[in-house]
Amino acid sequence: MPEFGQELALGASMKHYGRVLTDEHGYQSPDPELIGRVAASAGLSTGEAARVVADIVAWYREPVEGYVRRQHAHYQVHGKRNPEIFDLIARELACRVVAAPDLSERQLRRIVYG
């Protein structure tokens, strides 16, 4: 196991602090054990697995407000109307890895329109 703060072979900008990897921006990535499991199960190198895990973690790090606004705009472009959009978004939020709080249609509207 590397010493505290030692560079790992997981990416040039990742440092190890306990069981959490932190990049140069202070964002945290899952521990080396998870990266090792992903590497082994997917047949990836440790560096490739670290990048995949970091990308997935970044995807789920998006704040609820940003997710709601992005999805609302996406569905509007595809011709859906607000009642259907807000129902879809509420169901999507319930399925996210780190579940967002239950938001009413009014709360969803306030996120989108301010």
How would you characterize the overall build of this protein?
With 114 residues, the protein is mainly α. It contains five helices and three strands; from the N terminus they run E-E-E-H-H-H-H-H. Strand 2 and strand 3 form a beta hairpin. The protein starts with 14 loop residues before the first strand and ends with a helix.
How does the SSE layout of this entry go?
Layout: E1 15-17, E2 20-22, E3 28-29, H1 32-42, H2 46-60, H3 64-77, H4 82-95, H5 105-113
Antiparallel strand pairs: 1-2, 2-3
Helix pairs in contact: 1-2, 3-4
Helix count from the secondary structure assignment: 5
Q: Please tell me the total number of domains.
A: 2
State the secondary-structure class.
Answer: mainly alpha
Described by the principal axes of the CA atoms, the overall outline is elongated
Distance between the termini: 48 Å
What is the average of the pLDDT values? 80
Give the strand order of the largest sheet, numbering strands 1, 2, ... along the chain.
Answer: 1-2-3
Notable characteristics:
mainly alpha; three-stranded antiparallel β-sheet; 5 helices; elongated; disordered N terminus
State the gist of this model:
With 114 residues, the chain is mainly α. It contains 5 helices and 3 strands, in the order βββααααα.
